[in-house]
Amino acid sequence: MKYTEIKINTATPESPVSKIMIIYTGGTFGMSRDKNGVLVPYDFSLILEHLPTLRNLMLDLSIISFEHPIDSSNIEPEHWQMLGKIIFDNYTLHDGFVVLHGTDTMAYTASALSFMLQGLSKPVVFTGAQLPISETRSDARENLITSLEIASAKIDGRAVVPEVCIYFDDQLIRGNRAKKVESMHFDAFESENYPLLAKAGVSITYAHAFIKQVKVGEKLTWLPSLERNIAILKLFPGINEAIVNAILSAPNLSAVVMETFGSGNAPSSQWFLAQLKKAIERGIIIVNISQCPGGMVIQGKYETSKALEELGVISGADMTIEAAITKLMVLLGNYPIYEVKQLIGKSLAGEVTAN
């Protein structure tokens, strides 16, 4: 996979407010219609034709574009590694980063980067659009302009939002707390289990109490390795033993995110518990995540989850499914399994609320 640096002349002032890198991965944001009305990637070097107000932000902007922009449905862990390397390699040269990304898997990518980039003290703001920037009613313009303002915002020389986040439709959300909930309206993302980091109106109002605090002297560490042998087991009434066995017996399986009911409840059938026990004895990590968008897993609250606790299923508390999957990928790719079990329930990037 390759990327190219795009040169644009924004008439950068001698003393810019900040130096920001825009990374264009693909997605609806940078699409335009061809002669047949089909949406295709457009030349991102023409961004100033659609957004001449970029010249008014007093920013030193650089743009990197994936050589072949991709629909976010085709995002792979290799793209996360590429994004992480771009940010890591350019970290000292820039004050912040804005990543343009398709909405379908944006929460996965933002979650992954939040775990891969440990010790982050600069903003990495993901944004995109529900309508291409070439469309008259596109939400792309406001999303990009405000994301750039957030990425460049400082107080006493320090970044206001030194973490991976998603800005969309006037709301700034912690990246590993976000979930896509809408495909037809502009308010595409929600954060059910954590307050908004900021709200944009006439001005941008930051919720400083909920923004990650940076430790003095903390340095950026990049964790590039990712474990892909992870599965999701979504429970439903009537699920049968053959299906559960097929998932838990997958070759080279390392971990399973089990989507349970309510506050972490699951069937108490003997065959079901026996399948989980057998998998855990083989060294497979099983993390309990609720199917509910709000609330959290509390194993042992009801009899139907007490057995899971006794078997060694690990509570995922109030993590999103996107955060749980990507956290396991990063941890299993970079730490021994005994450390992974200790770290799963701990907050590494604000993704989980301590019990």
Describe the structure.
There is one protein chain. This protein is of the alpha/beta class and 355 residues long. The chain has two domains: 3-222, Rossmann fold (3-Layer(aba) Sandwich); 230-343, Rossmann fold (3-Layer(aba) Sandwich), CATH 3.40.50. Helices cover 26% and strands 23% of the residues. It contains nine helices and 21 strands. The protein has helices spanning 47-50, 77-90, 106-116, 140-152, 241-248, 270-281, 303-311, 321-334, 337-343; strands at residues 3-6, 18-24, 31-33, 39-41, 59-66, 96-100, 117-118, 124-127, 154-155, 158-159, 164-168, 171-174, 179-180, 189-190, 198-200, 204-206, 221-222, 230-234, 255-260, 285-290, 314-315. The strands form six sheets. A nine-stranded mixed β-sheet has the order 1-5-2-6-8-11-12-15-16, with helices on both faces. Strand 3 (31-33) and strand 4 form a beta hairpin. Helix 2 crosses helix 3, helix 3 (106-116) runs parallel beside helix 8 and helix 5 (241-248) packs parallel to helix 6. It is globular and about 70 Å long. The mean pLDDT is 89.
Give descriptors for this structure.
355 residues; alpha/beta; Rossmann fold; 9-stranded mixed beta sheet; 26% helix
